[in-house]
Design goal:
By secondary structure, the protein is mainly β. The chain has one domain (48-336): YVTN repeat-like/Quinoprotein amine dehydrogenase (Methylamine Dehydrogenase, Chain H, 7 Propeller), CATH 2.130.10. 2% of the residues lie in helices and 45% in strands. The protein has 1 helix and 31 strands. It has one helix spanning 5-12; strands at residues 29-31, 36-37, 44-47, 56-59, 64-69, 75-79, 84-88, 93-98, 108-109, 115-119, 124-128, 134-138, 146-151, 157-161, 166-170, 176-180, 187-192, 198-202, 207-211, 217-221, 229-234, 240-244, 249-253, 259-263, 272-277, 283-287, 292-296, 302-307, 312-317, 323-327, 332-336. It has a 5-stranded antiparallel sheet with strand order 1-16-15-14-13, with no helix packed on it. Strands 2-12-11-10-9 form a 5-stranded antiparallel sheet, with no helix packed on it. Strands 3-8-7-6-5 form a 5-stranded antiparallel sheet, with no helix packed on it. It is globular and about 50 Å long. The protein starts with a helix and ends with a strand.
Amino acid sequence: MRCLTAVCAMLVASCGSSAGGAPSPTGATGASLECRQVASASPTTTTVSPIDGVVARYAVGGGPTGLILGRDGNLWFSDTGGSRLGRLTLAGVLTFWDLVGGVPGFLAAAPDGTVWVPKEATGSVARITPNGVISECSLPTRSGTPFGATIGPDGNVWVVEMDASRVARMSPTGAVKEFAVPEGGGPVYITNGPDGNMWFTEGRGGRIGRVTTAGAITTFPLPNPSGGEGSITTGSDGALWFTEFTQGAIGRITTSGEVKEFPIPAGAGSKPNGIVAGPDGALWFAESGTNMIARITVNGVIAQRHAVSDFPDQLVFTPDGALWVTTFRTGDLARIARP
């Protein structure tokens, strides 16, 4: 996860109790909210060329963090530094939309081509259509700091609210229901699991969480509760793999809750951040502390592979096999042609 001042302070601080929570549909709150179209400035479009090298760099400016491959085949990213949503085509056409002061979190791409953007500073979620129309969808807990989103198997948008310690289920039209995470924990990233549930990491609770489409939440304690977990994804082995930002480890959890951790050779200074499953069957992750892209096999063998510019954050593979990475401090999108 990116190191905004408040987020970094949360990750570096000591984490809470490691006790696991029971399935918890209790504490849910409901609201019948609708998304409303918002007026925004016209998007700005430019063309950027890569800076040649072993790792091609596209200078997009700002502070790029979250990164996904959209249904349109383009790269969509959060510009945390500029409060903008960015889109980069594989031909280098760059477009920005102003989010009017909302700090964008981790994005989600829906089957209809819309992109959903948690806005941390405004307690809302923005929806942008393929033709660039933006709507604002409010959450009941406006100070909850929505951080990450995914599109669940039920077609709803699932959003983790870090400061409220809630998981929100939002319909495509904006109707919301929130579910409390047992014992808090500050959820930060959420993804679809291979079991039909959503799985999330906690920034300060030392646990991995599972939420069903009905909103029942179960949490699983980690061996070391001070890991400050970051991103999470499904591996080729059918387990969930996640990064432990402050501990310097990669974690693996099965859908039955069995956990194993793999220390990174560079130690706590590696600051593992984004993680993604690769076409080679391995997992690829960003070491924000060492400015390296590394690879871990499903057997737990770790090796650093590529140096990138300052503070690599999130990663995604494109259909041509290239690996793309956001680098927060240098304002780049990096492309590794053959990782």
